[in-house]
Structures are given as structure tokens and as C-alpha cells.
């Protein structure tokens, strides 16, 4: 399964990059995330509850970050196990491009699944993955994006 998209975030690239490396920010933005622990500068452990169609499972897994060219580019690899529900593993490449005071975040991700999840059908799994990715980036953009100054909001009223 493959996904790619781009998101505009109303914040400078350095702030976006820092937030992508902040476990507290990520925990608040990842749908179903119960726990996210920073093991080292490049390793995170997570516990996430997800529902895909009729299958609901608690996944425990780890993510390894590879900051190749910060803050412009980094990649990550991860894997998680949901017990009888199955497993998921994959990775993503992320590019952060400055655009004035904003940042354009582009990502390409690949994932493989197995177990009961793989039996649900590609359309359902892909749809759920797209929905979860959109929810994460919406949460992330809202949390990290610069709040609108009060005087600008009043001028528009």
C-alpha cells in the first residue's frame, strides 16, 4: 500500500521539524495513540488503538527516524504488532519546503500489513489508512500552525 500527499502548515520549517520530533506533539496528533515514548534521539515506542472495519486492535510498535538532511528531509521506518489482528510495517520519506512564513510538508509512505487486517480487502484498508493520515496531518497542522493574530482577526470581522 502506498500513500503520498502534501500539507501546508502555517509555521516556519524549523518549528515544523521540531514538532515532528517532539513525542508530546506527536502523541496528541496520532489518531488512537495511547502512549508514545522517546527511547533515543532516533527511536520511539508507541501504543495505538485502531479500528479498521470490524477489526479493532491495540498495536505496540517502534519507529526509527533517519534525519538525513534536517530540517529539509528525513525518513522513518516502523513496525507494529496487533496480536491476532495482524501486523503493519512500513516507512515514509518526508520533505519540508519553506514557502515564506509557511512550510509545505510532502510525504511518500509505503506499508505492508498481515494477519486479519490483510484479509479485510485492500480498498477498506487503504481508505482507513488515508483517513488516518489526513486526520494526523490536520491535527498536526492545527497544533503547530501559527495562531492568527487578534488584530488581523478583528480586521476581518
UniProtKB/TrEMBL annotation:
CDD domains: CoxG
One Pfam family here: COXG
InterPro entries: CO_DH_gsu (IPR010419), START-like_dom_sf (IPR023393)
The protein's name: Carbon monoxide dehydrogenase G protein
